[in-house]
Amino acid sequence: MSEILWEALKHVEGFIYPNEVEINWSVLIAVYPYITGLVAGAFIVASLERIFKVEAVKPTYRLALLTALAFLLCAPLPLVAHLGRPERAFEIMTTPHLTSAMAGFGFVYAWYLLIVLLTEIYYDYRRDIIRWAKEYKGIRGFIYRVLTLGEWDDSEEALKADQRVVNIVTIVGLPSAALLHGYVGFIFGSVKANIWWSSPLMPIIFLFSAMVSGIALVLLIYIASSYIRGVEPDKACTDTLAGYLLYSYILDLGLEAMELIHIFYTQEEGFDAIVTLISDKIFVSFVIIQIFFGTLVPIILLLIAKTGIFKFNVRKYLYIFATVLTLIGVFAMRWNVVIGGQILSKTYMGYSYYIMPVFGPESLSIALAIMALPFVILAILVKILPPWEAPYVWEKPELE
Predict the structure, then answer these.
(1) Residues of the chain above pLDDT 70, percent
(2) Which domain holds residue 56?
(3) What number of helices (H) and strands (E) belong to the chain?
(4) pTM for the model
(5) Which residues pair with 15 in a beta bridge?
(6) Are strands 349-351 and 13-15 parallel, antiparallel or unpaired?
C-alpha cells in the first residue's frame, strides 16, 4: 500500500466499502471538464459575433477561436495522463464502443477539432494566409504557403464563399460545443448510485458553467493581450463581454441553486450524508471558494461595473478581478463534483479522504503543467495567426 493511500486510510470516517479508500478519479479528472468547458465557452463567444451579429465583440472573434483551439488540443491530456498507458488512448478510435458515453468523447472531440474549429479557422483566415504567404519569405513564408493548402484564389467570389462556409460551420459548431461539454455533465448525472452526481440538471449546469468560464477566459486574455500589445482594450467590446458574463453567471447560479433546493426538498436516501459533505468535508472548496469568492463576489463586481458609476479605467480592474475569481470558482465547481462525489461513500455512512500529491503521475504539478500548456500553444497560434485588426509591430511583415 502506498504512503499516500495509507495516509488517506487514517482520515477515513465512518463506514465505507474497501474499494472506496482510494480516490480513483484524481485532480486530472477535475481538470478535464474544466478545459473542455473553456473550449465550449470560448467558441460560444466567437459565435456571438458570427451568428448573433453582436458587432461589439468583433475584436475578440478570432482570439476566441484560437483560444478554443489551444485548449481543445490539450483537452485529452488529463485523460491520457490518467490512463497511465497513453498508447491505449487510441483504442477509443480503433475499437469503438458505441454504447459508452466515455468512448463517445473520442468521436465528439474529433468532430469538433477537425470539422468545426480547424475548418472555421482556415476559411476565416484564408484571405490573410494568402496575403501573408505572398508577403513573407523564409520559414514563416513557407508556413503560410503550406497553410494555404494549395488554394490561392482570393477573388471576391471566393472570399464570399469562404464567409458562407464560416457561417455554416459556426451554426453547426454551436450545438457541437454544447455536446462536447454537456456530455461530461451527462456522464456524472447518469451515475444513479451517487446522490451528489445523479441529477438531470447536471449536463445543463456543466454547460452554463462552461459558458461562464469561457467568456471570463476570453475577456481576461483580451484585456491582458491588449496591455501586452500596448493598446487600450475596446471599451464597447469589454463592457459587452462583461455583460454577457454577468447574465450567464446569474443563470448558472440559478441552476445550481435549483439543484441544491431539489436535494434539500426531496431529502432522499443519503440526504444527511450530503449535508455533512457540504457543511464539513468540502465546506471550504464549496461554500467559501465556489459559492462566495467564485460566484457571489464576481457577480457583485460585475453588477457594480454595470451601474456605470465608474470610469472605464476602474471597470477594467473590476473585470480582471471578476474574471480571475470566476475561473477559480468554476474550477472549484469541477473539483467539488469530481472529488466531492468520491469522498462520499455509497454506504452514506462514511467518507473517504483525498490527498493530492505534489509530484508524480497524477499530481498537482502535472495538473498545473497541463493547464499552462494551452497558454503556450495560444501564444504560438497568435504569433502565426494574429487575431488583431491592427497587428502589433512584431506581427507586421518583415520583408526579407
Answers:
(1) 96
(2) 3-384
(3) 15, 2
(4) 0.92
(5) 349
(6) antiparallel
